Amino acid sequence: MVHEAHENGVEPTGAGSHILLIEDDETLAGLLARVLRNEGYHVELLDRADELPPAAKLMKFDVVLSDIHLAGGTSGHDVLKQVRATTDKIPVILMTAFADIEGAMSAVSQGAYDYLPKPIEPTELKRMVGEAVARRKIAGSAAPVIDAREQHASDAQIVGSAPSMINVYKTVAQVAPTTATVLIIGESGTGKELVARAIHAKSPRAAKPFVAVNCAALPESILESELFGHERGAFTGATGVKRGLFEEANGGTLFLDEIGEISPKMQVQLLRVLQEGEIRRVGASEAIKVDVRVVAATNRDLKNEVAAGRFREDVYFRLQVVTVKVPALRERKGDIGLLVRHFAQKHAERLGRPNPRVAPEVLEALDGYDFPGNVRELSHIVERAMLLAREGVVTANDLPQEVTRAFQTTAASGGAALADDWPTLAVLERRYIDRVLSRTGGNKTRAAEVLGIDRRTLNRMFARERAAAAGVNGDADVESELARIEAEDGPMSVKSTS
User: Fold this and answer.
1) Which of 167, 227, 257, 378 lies 20 to 30 Å from 74, alpha-carbon distance?
2) Is 68 exposed, middle or buried (0-12, 13-18, 19+ CB in 10 A)?
3) What distance lies between CA 239 and its chain's CA centroid?
4) Are 456 and 438 contacting, i.e. CB atoms less than 8 angstroms apart?
5) Distance CA 16, CA 133 (A)
């Protein structure tokens, strides 16, 4: 049943606009509604997809905001399908606590306006809803609907839920169905090829070849032959005709890694392919038409390379039709836990071993390391630790010295060791919790994940401590303190598990 969330705010931003909010967590629904109501929006609430109003009433809403996991076995994808069956003019924003590339791709490919990860920041919620309402009113339509296709995503294993990674997912979702050339930028080891594979896997070319070449690994003469092929007798040793990688990738995608390393001569030849869609084998007189989508990657700043005269400006502009920036691991350390679990499972399958348990101290140590080799380095660290681990448990002793050295230095700068003064177990527990909170920047959700408990359990521990300090220890007193702590956390710090 639909029920109105009565307004009590005076902010004019959303005046006259109607929001349909679908969320089965009553606490979170109330908090989200309050934020939107304070902006002047009229908000109506539902908790399941099969209670959507009929088409005539649905059309009064300017935005539909829905969680993905809903009551009654329904989902935000059901909401999206039902809204789209009625109209393509209402923006639908999907929310989820489990942000990943599959969710982003599914949401965007089915016509969602955007994809909002939890925990939800009030400013981001207001910005996204405000933008959607403005687009609805000015343009008269939501984001274009892209027909859903059968997807081939086995190679697109990008892991992470940090805001910077959500931006990567959304850009991939938007650009993959097109034919646009894409430039992927990021430090070595950040996973640029995985992004390229994701673009290919989510594109209409998914059933065709994905061909990758590292341009920095080959000298100019060999790279030219590899990319464009050669005719018999074109040079000493050319005893037959060789098809180049552009021909091998015909109909599919060619990934040019480390594109910033190619020579001026190769830049000219690449420009011809990008402009004319044709190549000429070494030693050949005739050009060959090719249908290839080019995705390039570099760890260099190509703007600086152009300014320095080392990279052609016309090639640069042809490559960067769309640019995807892959963040360094040190810029998204909140993803370390997810990545460790991902790599542990991946290496366990490859090595034929059971998935190991990871001690909390491992994540704490990794969090204090800068990862110059980025995600690739983390993968190697996890594999090494698994090989050295005993009894199926990875501890800090199984990590490389450079990681533990950084951890020990950080710990030393933060004060005495946890147990130097022989504290009680309760005091030791609290010190460890404080250290984990410090390392997660005060993020209770991340801290609870490191500690192996849920956020409410962590808050209950604080509630017991407060009750004891006040000289009361009854269950009712603890529950009262728990309610106060959760209220102090603020509306958007509530994290639904849906």
Assistant:
1) 167
2) buried
3) 48
4) no
5) 11
Beta bridge partners of 254: 211, 294
CB atoms within 10 A of CB 462: 17
**Domains in the chain: ranges and CATH:** 3-139 (3.40.50.2300), 163-327 (3.40.50.300), 329-415 (1.10.8.60), 419-498 (no CATH)
Q: In angstroms, rounded to a whole number, what is the distance separating the alpha carbons of residues 271 and 286?
A: 17
Q: Is the model's pLDDT at 324 over the cut of 90?
A: yes
Q: What is the mean pLDDT of residues 52-61?
A: 89
Which has the closest alpha carbon to 337: 445, 258, 229, 420? 445
What is the SS3 assignment for 214? strand
Q: How far apart are the first and last CA of the chain?
A: 21
Smallest Cα–Cα separation from 80: which of 70, 364, 72, 320?
Answer: 70
pLDDT tens profile 279-296: 888 877 788 899 999 999
Which residues are CB-contacts of 221 (< 8 A; sequence separation ≥ 6)? 235
Given a cut of 60, is residue 9 above it in pLDDT? Answer: no
Q: List all residues 6 or more positions away from 252 whose beta carbon is below 8 Å from its beta carbon.
A: 200, 205, 208, 209, 210, 211, 292, 293
Q: What residues are paired with 259 via a beta bridge?
A: none
User: What is the spatial order of strands in the sheet that 114-117 belongs to?
Assistant: 3-5, 42-46, 18-22, 63-67, 92-96, 114-117
pTM: 0.61
Distances (CA, A) of 163 to 115, 151, 319, 471: 11, 24, 25, 42
Nearest CA to 42 out of 72, 71, 63, 66 is that of 63
Average pLDDT, stretch 180-200?
94
Tens-place pLDDT, residues 333-381: 888 988 999 999 999 998 888 888 888 888 888 988 999 999 999 999 9
DSSP state letter for 408:
H
53 preceded by cis ω (within 30°)?
no
H runs (alpha helix) in 359-474: 360-367, 374-388, 401-413, 425-439, 444-451, 455-469
